[in-house]
Amino acid sequence: MSLAARPGNFGSRFHNRLYELLGLDYVYKAFATADLAGAIGGVRALGVRGCAVSMPFKEAVVPLLDGLDPSAAAIGSVNTIVNDHGRLTGYNTDHLAVRLLLERTGLPPGTRFLLRGSGGMARAAAAALRGLGFTDGTIVARNEATGPALAAAHGYGWQAEPGGLEAALLINATPLGMAGPEAQSLAFPEERIRACDTAFDVVAMPPETPFLARARAHGKRLISGADVIVLQALEQFVLYTGVRPDDAQVAAAAAFARAAG
To answer: Which residue among 13, 15, 17, 58 is the active-site one?
Structure first.
């Protein structure tokens, strides 16, 4: 199941399609709730195997759980709960997904990066970078409370704007470029994009933001939020079921989930 203030349908379609393809006796349902404690009590009382957690509950749910996996403890945020015979453990598969995608690039830990943002996804990215040994980076965030705090937590620098900073790896973890009022906004200035090697945008909709489109035009390596959303859902699926689908099954489920949009 999924708990959110405003549930989407990607997760439900992705999980249920995989259950169908693999012949598993599970069903995934999304619920809107304003009573988080009551909902978590229901997970315990009804023996619900697993639960996804979306905004605005990712931090608020932590004290209601029995324990945290390192993926969630690293950032103090939970997007997945696993129920083992009444014991609820929180995970963060956003963190797991970002880490896996960064590992796949093969970038050495000495690579300099700029990470734009200081919210939940930025915390997941910063923890993943630090966990992989990346030490040379700057958090770019306008929020003068959360930006410096995130930087200090992981030993990185902080600036309110990209300014004259250059880096081989650029990561956007803000809504810049997302469908809506900031749809046409570039997460990084043109000159920063031209100078980078790898452009990573956690925005899933649209799958190619103005930032990634500009990076593609300059021949840069791309990682998109569409990659993140599939990987984080896949890691949830594995936590719930103990089964890891093959690549063809994951691709089929992702295509099915996106077709609803």
So the answer is: 58
